[in-house]
Amino acid sequence: MFGKVKKWFGIEGTKLRLHVLDHYPRDVQTINGELEVQSKRVERINDIQVQFIEVYTRGRGEDKRIDEFILGSWQYQHSFQVSEGNSKMLFFKLAFEPVQSAMDQRASKGFLQRNLIGLMKSMKGVNSDFYLKAVATVDGNTWQPRAKTKIFFE
């Protein structure tokens, strides 16, 4: 009985873990990594999707607006089985296309503009955060296992 409740909530079920660098240079166009899939009981994984997401925030207080952009994705569509002691490692190479705002495009034109745009962005509360998010589809589970990690650019 309790095992069914745990399975329904995804407790002690399939776990995903992303293994990637946490810092990347600004000019990188792919993120390489590993996705570890493990479970304490026998589970059938139908597919896995990894997305690279930019969360773009601007404004402050009640005027704060947040947009999410999917910059790239990678999908594994072959079903496989995992169990305790029999985890699976999937290697991925996720290519992405960065989105540049009009301010970013103008900032790339020179040193003075870059500093001025940087000042304007800080005054307006503009910020971008980048995440890798993995989601798996598991037979018989109501909740899909997920993993999320933050990526920083230098």
What is the terminal separation in angstroms? 50 Å
Number of E-type strands: 9
Helix fraction, binned, reads: 10-25%
The CATH class, by name, is Mainly Beta
Topology:
Blueprint: H1 2-9, E1 15-19, E2 23-24, E3 30-38, E4 43-58, E5 65-76, E6 80-82, E7 88-95, H2 102-107, H3 111-124, E8 127-138, E9 146-153
Descriptive notes:
- The protein has helices spanning 2-9, 102-107, 111-124, and strands spanning 15-19, 23-24, 30-38, 43-58, 65-76, 80-82, 88-95, 127-138, 146-153.
- It is an alpha+beta fold.
- Strands 2, 4, 5, 6, 8 and 9 form a six-stranded mixed β-sheet that branches.
- A hairpin with a 6-residue loop joins strand 4 and strand 5.
